[in-house]
Design brief:
The chain is of the alpha+beta class and 421 residues long. The protein is built from 12 helices and 18 strands. It has helices spanning 24-40, 52-59, 87-96, 112-117, 120-140, 156-161, 169-181, 185-208, 215-228, 290-309, 316-319, 331-334; strands at 46-49, 72-76, 81-85, 103-105, 148-150, 167-168, 232-233, 237-240, 262-266, 270-272, 275-276, 280-285, 347-350, 357-361, 378-387, 390-401, 404-407, 417-419. The strands form 4 sheets. Strands 4-3-2-1-5-6 form a 6-stranded mixed sheet. It has a 5-stranded antiparallel sheet with strand order 14-13-15-16-17.
């Protein structure tokens, strides 16, 4: 097993002066330097970042969504940063974010604002104005004659081309993927901390699940605890009984819990300092049936078969063989013919400032499009199995170490968590 060093291990969510915890200044600086180094290795003069996770990666700003491209960031090859945001956000950032010294008011050239404007002329105005604002900054910082990377492939490209800018989207997207795929020590600790917070949520499932309680009531107790723990709750759900196979389209519903139900909770998109969880656990209301125990054992063993294959240098085409084949996927029940039709059932996906980062390990993709696993990658690995017209799901959050994986999630996984009532 991986032997943790002094830094590694959750110690609390508050800042203190009497022990080392997550160093947020180091977190910001190391991420920024990784992105800048990769920019310096290209012939690009700057990057324009519109994707929220990329903006946070470079600036450290808490991107919580908005009405469209009303926030965006320019990073130059010399390490200069210009950030545009809405009037209220920009005003707050100028006061609260002293590490950024050039914050400007944004024109929303993409997304909901142009869409809601109702006229093509209004949309063209907003898009071109956004491009003009960025071009003015590029001129100020002396990068306007060099190629610019853009992390979204949109109509914004044409607006920049009107100003004579050589826009390169693929190069920018690949650059940011490369910067973000291997995590720093503080990024890993953020994921360890959010896993611990999710476990406080699982405890609420144990304490509040009983016959007659509705899924929505229990999930309300869970989310209250997650917020109390300092998390950002951007997703997640709890489902029960027949809603567990297949997973219900509405996720959490007003269904009442009954004796003998399987209940599982997915703590996905729960954030700590922006780093997102994805963490399933299964519970039984009363003693699980033998069929449910057998199904759970299959799902757990499949998950750990995959985990045992993950190490630096391994490739995803080989690792994905640990996931079930089409028979194990119960493809006949779904009426499916190929693995790509079974999205989200059995796979591993990268974790970071968003749920789906590199790598992705999946029978629907990896056999023909493999990538190599690197030390420091973080991911969630998930499996499932039906039982008695219900289903079980399990998932672990892990980081790739030099000789395998370290499991960041610690809620017991050996057997279904039994809830007595």
């Amino acid at each position: 097993m991986y032997d943790r060093n002094f830094m590694e291990g959750t110690r609390g969510t508050q800042a203190v002066d009497w022990e080392e915890r997550i160093d947020v200044k180091r977190l910001r600086e190391e991420r920024f330097n990784k992105a800048l180094q990769r920019l310096e290795d290209t012939d690009l003069g700057s990057l324009l970042l519109v994707s929220d996770p990329n903006i946070r990666y470079v600036t450290g700003l808490a991107m919580t969504g908005g009405s469209g491209a009303d926030h965006y960031t320019l990073l130059t090859e010399d390490g200069d940063v210009v950030h545009w945001d809405t009037a209220d956000h920009a005003s707050n950032q100028r006061f609260n974010c002293p590490w950024l010294d050039d914050i400007r008011y944004a024109c929303p050239g993409l997304g909901n604002v142009p869409r809601a404007s109702g006229r093509d002329s209004a949309r063209a105005f907003l898009t071109q104005k956004m491009a003009d604002l960025v071009y003015e900054a590029m001129e100020e910082y002396g990068v306007h004659t060099e190629p610019m990377g853009l992390d979204v492939d949109t109509g914004l490209v044409g607006a920049f081309e009107n100003n004579g800018v050589d826009v390169r989207t693929k190069e920018c997207i690949d650059l940011m993927h490369d910067a973000r795929k291997v995590k720093t020590r503080d990024e890993i600790e953020c994921l360890r901390q959010v896993a611990a917070i999710c476990e406080a949520g699982f405890q609420q499932v144990v304490e509040n699940t009983a016959p007659g309680k509705r899924e929505s009531e229990i999930w309300g107790d869970v989310t209250k605890e997650l917020w109390r723990q300092g998390a950002f709750v951007g997703g997640g759900y709890l489902t029960s009984g027949p809603n567990t196979w297949p997973k219900h389209q509405a996720n959490t519903t007003d269904r009442s819990i009954r004796p003998g139900d399987i209940v599982y909770a997915d703590m996905y998109n729960i954030g700590y300092l922006g780093y997102r969880s994805c963490y399933y656990r299964t519970f039984s209301v009363g003693k699980p049936t033998q069929a449910q125990q057998d199904a759970y054992e299959i799902a757990r063993d499949n998950l750990y078969d995959v985990l045992e294959r993950i190490e630096p240098g391994a490739t995803t085409d080989e690792i994905c063989k640990g996931f079930p084949d089409m028979d194990g996927e119960h493809a006949e029940w779904y009426g499916a013919d190929e693995h790509w039709q079974m999205t989200t059932n059995h796979w591993a996906h990268g974790l970071g400032l968003q749920l789906y980062e590199m790598p992705l390990i999946w029978r629907g993709l990896s056999p023909d499009h493999p990538i190599e696993i690197e030390e420091g990658m973080t991911m969630a690995v998930e499996t499932m199995e039906p039982a008695d017209r219900q289903g079980v799901r399990v998932e672990e959050m892990v980081v790739v170490r030099e000789n395998g994986v370290e499991v960041l999630s610690q809620w017991p996984i050996e057997k279904i968590t039994q809830i007595d009532y």
